[in-house]
Amino acid sequence: MGALGVLSLAGALTFGVESAYAPGIALLAGSVVLAGVLGLTPPFLLAAAFLVLLAWDVGKHGFGIAREVGREPSTFRIEAVHGLSSALVYAAGATLGYGIYAGVTGGRSVVALLALLVGSVALLFALRT
Amino acid sequence: MSRARRGLLVVGLASGLVGVLLVASPGVARGVSLTGAARTVPVAVVGVAAAALAARSLLDARRGNAAGDGERKATTSGAFPSPERRPRYDPPGTEFARRVDAIGWTDRRDAEPANRRELRDDLRNAATSALSRGSGPSPREVERRLRDGSWTDDPLASAFFAGDLVPSLSLSGYVRALVRGEPPFARRAGRAAAALSKRAGAGDMTPAPSADVRVAFGDEPAVRTSRYLPDGEESRERESATDRVRGVTAAALAVGGLGIVTLRPGLLLLALFGITVSGYARAVPAPSRAVAVERAVSDAEPAVGDEVEVTLSVRNVGDATLADLRLVDGVPPGLAVVDGSPKFATALRPGKRASVTYTVEAARGDHAFDPALVVTRDALGVRKRETLVDTETTVSCRPPAQSLPGGAPARTTTRAGRSRSDAPGPGVEFHSVREYRPGDPPSRIDWRRKAKTGEFSTVAFHEHRRQRVLVVVDARAEAYVAWDGGGDGDGNSNGEPVVQRGVAAAAALVSRFRSAGVPVGLAALSPRSCRFPPGRGGDHHRRLQEALVASPALGWVPPDGEVDASAAVREIHRRVRADTRVVFVSPLSDDASVTAARRFDAHGHPVSVLSPDPAARTRARGYESGYASLARERRLRRLRAAGIPASDWDPTEPLREVTRSGQSRATTSR
User: Fold this and answer.
1) What's the pLDDT band for B472 if we cut at 50, 70, 90?
2) Where would you find the membrane-spanning parts of this chain (chain A) (predicted)?
């Protein structure tokens, strides 16, 4: 599934076919989720999701430019800036989160976890704008 | 905040606090150990709730988009500006093709399919007129042939007139029509129109619409930058979040929910990306708008057809780097981009400058550039700001004053009665002799003839009247038909509306009448106002020529509103003298143009019609272009039958021919 996704995505991004891009991303995301359900260890899963997210982001950005500005002008500059900064931000977020996760896991009570989860989801519902 | 929401907030805060407390001092909950349902149910509920949140977020995004689209549709089309294209002008016959296309599978269930009946009536009228013209059979005979189908070899075409509005098909025929995807009635209509064009000598037409029309069906209209943002006071700028944040957050919530339900910490951790993006979107400042845009044109007053280089440069005048800057120049609708692109994208450090150069081809008229659209985004592209930046530039392209054949224009003034009219009456130049009628003045009785033959007869002279001419240009939205068939057939090129040819002809006519010393005025049949009563003199003439170049009513963009032809004619009639001659320049692309000409006639104006043929250069071979020329020929015949001289002008011919005939008499009918 993942291989199929990679193949489709590679084709889409090389030849600029937008209709092959979305299924490719969907396949990749599906394989990441499947891997998660089957119990892949968190660091690998995070890395895989990070890469898929980056691929999605860069692809979306690129196709957005093509739609708005056209294919003729050179867009390497803003694509590079965008790709680099996206990678940086996502990587920083994921690393920070994973650090906290690795630091606090083990030996906590299930009740605490439940209370936190209930609290965050309730807050999300309440503060949704 | 609603009560339910407040309750949720309290629950959330309390539960979160308890959680933090338990994490901080694990001893408190040591006594509590959850087992069985008490352990699994809350987990499942929380997971499902997270998934629900994701779904709602996605639904909201979709609904928000839909609402935004609906809101924007009133003023703009919502699509990103594409100023490098001209507004699309429909090729002739597009309206007909649209009507055939609108024949659906479902309207056959109506008791009285009105659109089918109207379509058939219109086509029958065109057929009757086309087949019975000249020395052809009488209209009654044509009707009979249409009914029994003997007018054509094509069984489908003959079935269009002879068969039912809702053709009854055998099961196999129905299945075949379904496979073909075209209702049988529409198919027959196309075949009938094609067969009719062939019979009428318009050449072979395919029974399918031509490529240009198919493009015109599905094509999004070109959007000007000035129409992109919704109208209103603060519409020069718009700041919005892109759907990127929503997408990532929703996906993160869904995966996190799945992680909670399946008790996989890895999946729950993926929600981190959602938190990251949401947090980033809140923390990042709105993208800067500190840009200065300049535009330079290589030639502000080019001749028609010249290539003008436009250089658009943008400078970052703020102190933050613009990570993602996209710029779309507001190319005026009349100028077609022939080389390069008026759009570009770049990243700009403070103080840096970037520029783009493209080439447009000058066309007649004053072309004011629309504001340039600047779109800035932050580095991640989660927020964007769209700003319209005004930079006033106008390219003014005026054709040189028409060099007049026959030497210098007449210098003599022509107060009352220089121009000879065709009406017989008192005067000095012999016109005709007719039999005496009681009441004729004795001085005009031909006494010599009386002496020779003993009969009274009256000599009539050319009556000298002062002529006044009003040139009326048909510039309704219906008259904005592409006159070069939409270009090279693949629908990519820039069309020119036939109205522009009409305006060029009007300019030539005005010059001609002026050099003949005839007071001449100008009016546009359009929702936009453009009226100049007949007058004389250099200033008046300059005003007319200025209006012909710069008046928005005669511009490149079709007017938005509808105009009632009769009411518009009445308006024009009330502003000029009743004996003013009207030269009506119209492509005759619909029946309302015939109505307009006849209304002028009914108001007592001597009318002549000059009709530039929109199909003169077209290479379209679809049935719709055949129908369009048939219908137009029918309109010309109707005008002539009503005693209105109507001349069919091929705009590829030089204007001189037109102006010559325009000067001598009413434009001649061919």
Assistant:
1) very high
2) 29-59, 80-101, 107-127
Sign of CA dihedral B271, B277, B281, B285: positive
B53: chain A residues, CB-CB within 8 Å: 121, 124-125, 128
Asked if B520 and B636 sit in the same domain, the reply is: yes
Higher local confidence (pLDDT), B256 or B472: B472
ipTM here: 0.82
Both B175 and B118 in one domain: the answer is: yes
Note whether residue B609 is domain-resident: yes
What digits encode the pLDDT tens for the residues B159-191? Answer: 787 777 777 777 777 787 777 777 778 888 888
Three-state DSSP class for residue B461: strand
Instruction: Examine the domain organization and report whether B455 and B495 are in the same domain.
Output: no
Q: Does the distance separating the beta carbons of A73 and B380 come in below 8 Å?
A: no
Nearest Cα neighbor of B379 from A37, A87, A68, A21 is: A87
CB contact under 8 A, A69 and B14: no
Find out whether B316 and B322 touch, Cβ atoms under 8 Å: yes
Per the document, the length of chain A is 129
Give the CB-side neighbour count of residue A37, counting CA atoms within 13 A: 12
Structural tokens at position B470: 């009003």
Q: Which of B434, B464, B494 is the last residue of a domain?
A: B464
CB contact under 8 A, A108 and B26: yes
Of B15, B269, B379, the CB nearest to A46: B269
Residue B170 in domain: yes
Per the DSSP assignment, residues forming a β-bridge with B239 are B385
Any A CB within 8 A of B347 CB = yes
Q: Give the pLDDT score at B462.
A: 63
In order of B308, B418, B468, B549, B657, the CA distances from B405 in angstroms are 31, 20, 22, 22, 11
| Whether A70 and B343 lie within 8 Å, measured CB to CB | yes
One domain for residues B301 and B443: no
CATH at residue B336: 2.60.40.1530
A112 in contact with B at a CB cutoff of 8 Å?
yes
Could you tell me which of B638, B657, B530, B660 has the C-alpha nearest to residue B592? Answer: B638
Chain B, nearest residue to A38 by Cα: B264
What mean pLDDT, rounded, does chain B reach?
Answer: 77
Min distance A14 CA to chain B CA atoms (Å): 20
B414 occurs within a structural domain = no
Among residues of chain B, what percentage have pLDDT more than 70? 79
Alpha carbons within 13 A on the beta-carbon side of B411: 2
Cβ pair B579, B548 in contact under 8 A: no
CATH code where residue B545 lies? 3.40.50.410
Is position B150 within any domain?
yes
B623 in the same domain as B481? yes
Residue predicted with more confidence, B479 or A129: B479
Cβ contacts of A37 on chain B, cutoff 8 Å: 258, 262, 264, 267
B34–A39 C-beta distance less than 8 A:
no
B525 close to B596: Cβ distance less than 8 angstroms: yes
**Mean pLDDT to the nearest integer, B639-662:** 73
Task: State pLDDT tens for residues A92-111.
Answer: 888 888 888 877 766 566 67
Per-residue pLDDT of B29-68, as tens digits, reads 666 666 666 667 777 777 788 788 778 777 776 665 554 4
Domain ranges across chain A: 2-127
Are residues B378 and B445 located together in one domain of the fold?
Answer: no
Q: How many domains does chain B fold into?
A: 6
Distance from CA of B29 to the nearest CA of A (A): 7
| Average pLDDT of the residues in B186-215 | 75
Q: Quick check: A36 and B244 CB within 8 A?
A: no
Contact B380 A109 (CB under 8 A): no
Tens digits of residue pLDDT in A46-105: 888 888 888 888 888 888 888 777 766 677 778 888 888 889 888 888 888 888 887 776
Are residues B537 and B629 located together in one domain of the fold? Answer: yes
Q: Are residues B451 and B351 in the same domain?
A: no
Rounded Cα distance between B159 and B146, Å, is: 9
Q: B430 or B614: which carries more pLDDT confidence? A: B614
Condensed to tens digits (0 to 9), the pLDDT of residues B561-570 reads: 788 888 888 9
